[in-house]
Amino acid sequence: MPKDNSIKSILIIGSGPIVIGQACEFDYAGSQAARSLREEGIEVTLINSNPATIMTDEVTADNIYLKPLTKKSIREILEKHDIDAVLPTMGGQTALNLAMDCDKAGIWEKHGVRVIGSNFDAIETTEDREKFRLLMEKLNVGTCKGRTATSFLEGKEIAQEIGFPLIIRSSYTLGGAGGGFVEKPEDFDKALNDGLHASPIHEVLIEQSIMGWKEYELEIMRDSIGNFIVICSIENFDPMGVHTGDSITVAPAMTLPDTVYQNLRDHAIKMIAGIGEFAGGCNVQFAVHPETDEIIGIEINPRVSRSSALASKATGYPIAKIAAKLAIGYNLDELNNQITKTTSAFFEPSIDYVIVKVPRWNFDKFKGSDRHLGLQMKSVGEAMGIGRNFQEALQKACQSLEIKRNGLGADGRELKSHDELLYSLKHPSWNRLFHVYDSFKLGIPFKTIHNLTKIDPWFLNQIEELIALENEIDKFDLDTLPKDLMLTAKKKGYADRQIAHLIDCLESQVFAKRQEMGIKRTYKLVDTCAAEFDAKTPYYYSTFEEENESIPTDKKKIIVLGSGPNRIGQGIEFDYSCVHGILAAKECGYETIMINCNPETVSTDFDIADKLYFEPVFWEHIYEIILLEKPEGVIVQLGGQTALKLAEKLERYGIKIIGTSFKALDLAEDRGSFSSLLKEQDIPYPKFGIIETADEALSLSQELGFPLLVRPSYVLGGQGMKIVINEEELESHVVELFRQIPGNRVMLDHYLDGAIEAEADAICDGENVHIIGIMQHIEPAGIHSGDSFAVLPPFNLGDLVIRKIEDYTRKIAVALETVGLINIQFAIKNDEVYIIEANPRASRTVPFICKAYQEPYVNYAVKVMLGDKKVTDFKFNPKKQGYAIKEPVFSFHKFPNVNKELGPEMKSTGESIYFIDDLMDDYFMELYAERNLYLSR
Q: N or C: which end of the chain has fewer CB within 10 A?
C-alpha cells in the first residue's frame, strides 16, 4: 500500500529529559523519524522538553515546542496547528503514556487526530502484565507460572501458590522500576509494597523465577499488511536476572542453535500478530532454558526502544527511519535499503561481524547505593564495539567505556581476592565482566565460574582463551615477540597498551614494532548485507585483515571526536554540539569524519558525517584513522572531557587541533597557571592553593580558612569535589582522593559561603568576543552547575555585576587565545565577581542557550574555529522574550537509600527547559523560595 496522502502534518512526541532507563536513544529515534517524514513532504511538529537534543533543534522539524510533556501542552499545539496524525512510538514510555492519557481524555478524537505507528490496544496488552500473560496463554506461547495482584493481600496469596524464588514486575513502569527477584519469604513484603507503589495503576505481576535462564531479544519490523522481518537477534551475555539495559549484549546471538532461533522467530511473529494492528519497530524478549530449550515470552515493546538504536547501529538498518515511513502507510517492499540504495528494505540484514554492547554505570556518584544489578536498570549509558569476532568486539567495547581500563584486563588492575571474586560472580554488579576475567587469571575452575554466574560456557571459553593467549605473550619481550602472536593479539582486540603491559615496554614501542611487522588496521564497511551488494554509505569499523574498504579522498577534511558513552556530567548535549560541528564543517566545504562509539546518538547515524568510524574514542584507534585519512585537523572542543583529554597526545604527535590550542586548553585546566593569568588581568578569584599530600592540605587550610572546596584536576562533572568545614573532614576526603586518583594534584579553594553563582558562554576568534548568554543559578554557589536550576538571562544581578561578568569573560577569552566556544563560571559576593573556572570548549549550557535564543551558536563557533569566519561576520539576533529556566532532572528513584542532598559533585542525569514570561511566575517564585533546601557540604 503506498503512502497515505491524507496525512499532511504529524505530531511527534519526544521522551523528555534523560533519566536512567530512557536516554538519548529516543533523541536518535525522534530525529530520524522527523527527517524521514519531512522527506515525504509532511509537516512535522515536535514536542519535547529536553533542550540538549538535536531532536529539538530547528534542523529537525518544522515546528518545535519546548514544553512540558503534558495534556495541557498537547491541547495548546492542537489548537494552533492542523495536525492529521500523532506518532507516539519514538519517545519511549513517556510518549506512549502521554498519548494514552490524551486518548482517555478524548483529546485526539476532539481534534480529529489519528494515532499512527501503534494502537492503544497493542500498547495496553504489552504494558498490562495480566493482559499480556493471558494473551500469551491463548497464543500458546510459554509464560511463567503466576498472575497479577492489585493489592497487598492478593500478592501474598499468589506468592503462597507459586512458592519461592519468584519475580515481581510492576505494570506501566520504565526501566524495570518496581521489579525484583525475591529469594526468601522474609524479603517478600517489602518487595511487594515497593512494586505496587512503583506502578501507576498499583498492579504487579508475581511469577515463578527463571533466574539463570538464557535471554534473547529479536528486533523486528512489521508493516500494516503483516509483513515481518527480523532486523537482528541479540543475545544477553548475562543470563536472566539482570535487566537487559544493564546486560552486556551481543549481536548476532552467538549460542543460539538454528532450530531454537526459528522457534523464537515463529513465536515472535505470532506474538506481534496477536497484540493488534500496528506498523513499525518492535522488540520481543525471550527466556530460553539452558538445557531443555524451553521458551518463555518475557515482553514485547511495540515501539522503538534502546535495543532499536543498538540494532540500527549494529546492522546499518535505520529502524526509526523505516518505522516512520511504515506509519504513514508504506509497506516494507515499497521502500529501499538506506545503505545500498538499490536493494529493498524488505530484507533481513546479514552481518559478517560481531557487535558487543557494554553498559556504562555511574555508581560513584551515588555513595552508599546498592550496586547489585537486577530487574531495575541502573546504567546511564552504553558503548558498542564492532569486530570480526566476539573477542575483538568485546575488547573494543571495554576500551570505549572510559573507566581507566585499556580493554578487558592486561593492565595489572585485576582483583586477586578469591573470596571477593566468588561473591562478585554470584552477585552481579557493574564489574562482573572484569571479575570473570580475574577469576580465570587467578585459577578459579571453569565449572565454579559457570555455576556461580550461569553465563553460557561459550562466552566463558572466549574469556578463558584470552588468559591463555596472555600467558603465551608473557614469555616474550618486544624483540622476540613473534609476528603471528602479535597479529593474533590484535585480531582479538588487544590494544597496544595491553600488549605493552604484558611484555613490559611502552605503548609507542608496540605500535612501532607492529608497523615494522606490517600489522596495520584495515577498515570494513557496515553494509547490512554481508558485502553481497555495494554499500553507498561510508560507515566503518576497524579490524586486522588484508583488504581495506575505506579509501581516503583527496578532499580537505576534518575529524570530529565524539564524547563516548553517556554518563553523569557528559551527556547528550555534547552529541548535539558534535552534530552541529559536522554540519558547519560541511557548509565550509570540508569532508567530515566522525569518530564515536555510542550507539544511542545522532552523531553515529550513518548519514550525518561524510564518513563515520564507529570506533572507541581511544588514542590508538583515533591515531590510525588520522594516519589513514590525513585530515587538516581534529576538533576536540565539542566532545566534552573525553575528546579534550586526547588534546595533549594530538599535540605531542604534531596533529593540528582545530580551534583553541592545546596550550590554552591545558592552561585553563591547570589551576596554578590559570590563576596567574587572572592575576595578570586583575580579575578576582577565591584564595586557593595546590596540595599533593594530606599534610600540605592541613597546613594550607590554616592559611585559606574554612569552609574549603576540595577538587582534583582534570575531572568530569565535579567528580571528587566536596565542601569541607573542618580539618577532620578535609583530611579524610584528601586521603580518599589520593587513593582513588594517585598522582593527581588537588586544589583547595576558599569556599565563598552564600555567594550567587552565574556562568557565561561566549564565542571568540582570538580577538573578538561575543557573549551568547549569561545564566544565573537559583541555588547559591556550592551546588554543581549541572545540578542547579539556572535562569537565562540573569534575574537579579545588578548592572555593575553584569558589566563585570561581561568584561571578565572578554578578557579571559582573549587571554586564553580562545578560538571557538568558552564557558566561564562565576561566584558573586558583596557585588564582587570571582572566577571559579573557565572551560574553553562547548559546555552543557550551549545547547540550552541555542534553543532559548533560537540561534545556531555551535554552527557559528565551528566556522570561527575553522577560520572561515570572524565573530564580527555574524549578525547575532537572539529572540529574547521572558526567561528560560534550566531544570535539572535526577534519577534518585533508582537508588532509594542514597542521600539526595546536592553539592559540588554533579548527580543529575538530564535537564528540561521551562519558559516564563516574568519573575512573578508562581513556578519561579517557588523555586527561588526553596533555593537553599538541597545544599550539602
A: N
